[in-house]
Amino acid sequence: MPLAPIAFLTTLLHVFLAVRLLPALAQATGAWPVFALLLLLSAVTMPLPFLRRLPLPDVLRAPVRWVGLLAMGWFSSVFVLAVLRDIGLLSAWAVTRLADLSMDRASWEQGSALAVMALATADSLVGLFFARRTPPVRRVEVPIAGLPARLAGFTIAQLSDLHVGPTIRASYIARIVEEVNRLGADMVAITGDLVDGSVAELRAHVAPLARLRARHGTFVVTGNHEYYAGAHAWIDELRRLGLKVLLNEHVVLQTRSVHGAQTDEEILDSALLVAGVTDYTAGHFDAAHESDPQEALRDAPPMVATRILLAHQPRSAPAAAEAGFQLQLSGHTHGGQFFPWNLFVPLQQPFTAGLHRLQDMWVYVSRGTGYWGPPKRLGAPSEITLVTLRRADD
Q1: What CATH number was assigned to the domain covering residues 137-391?
Q2: Which parts of the chain span the membrane according to its record (predicted)?
Q3: With the C-alpha atoms ordered 302, 357, 384, 201, is the resulting torsion angle positive or negative?
Q4: What is the pLDDT of residues 1-13, one digit of tens each?
Q5: Could you tell me where in the chain the CATH 3.60.21.10 domains are found?
């Protein structure tokens, strides 16, 4: 959607907030001009991070984008709380009328307007802290029926939705790389939405990913944001960094060293198939990238029964289960990131976060390692996920 209509709509919403809140704030506190200035700053700066080229000196572009994205998170909370305030005031008025009670409407309006501004500002500051901290490690054990004994204990460090872009830069990625390397995982999986910008803009900020260390390497699948940013250029760049990008294809990992005479059964017992599909919507951008879990298994050795799929969106799961995978690792949802957006995720995706069962397949949905848009997380903590495979009968 073009930016101009969105900017016009958000301006109208800011006008609505000014009309609904500023008169009550002017009666309640002498600090109301501060809130008026914040609303004005929010209205002006919110669209700026989404302009491809800001007509500003280089030194100002990053700070202005930061301000615009912080404003977006703050405005979102102010708007939701202001709507809830109006519903509450209307409900209180109706109850007092029906019960023939008195109501000091002016006091209620002033107190609730102050509460809206105070709560929105507080939750934005708390959300900023949780967004910008180094994501904690979330340890998840997945019990897989029929898992060969030699694969029990195999570990996968999952990163998802890093969204390297205006506010997530090289220093943030370097912290994550250090944390992952400390885990000593058998493999690293990056399940899409790695970037929000072109290779030319973000090459240096993605570069720390080349330092990821795991016994079997790092595997990547595309997310929808890679296609917004130029997927083919990013695929080439990630491969240049030494990451293995899986585009509706698979690899077979030999997870135990094979020395001397080994039976076919022993070799197969320690083999793990790891497949990756393009984003669920990739076919809209490039027909050759149509997401296809079945195609990802083309020419797969039939005797390698343990099969894991990396798929950015959880809604790839029905096709993955049909194809015969035991586990799908996904992201995309951010766990909702913050209220009220968490309420809308289930309208599009079958799972929002955590470990779920679909037919005979497990689906794990990461809440994301970074964030999109506002640097704000509430109720949906970011994570570095350490997945450990276990035998279902252990």
Answers
A1: 3.60.21.10
A2: 34-51, 63-84
A3: positive
A4: 567 888 889 999 9
A5: 137-391
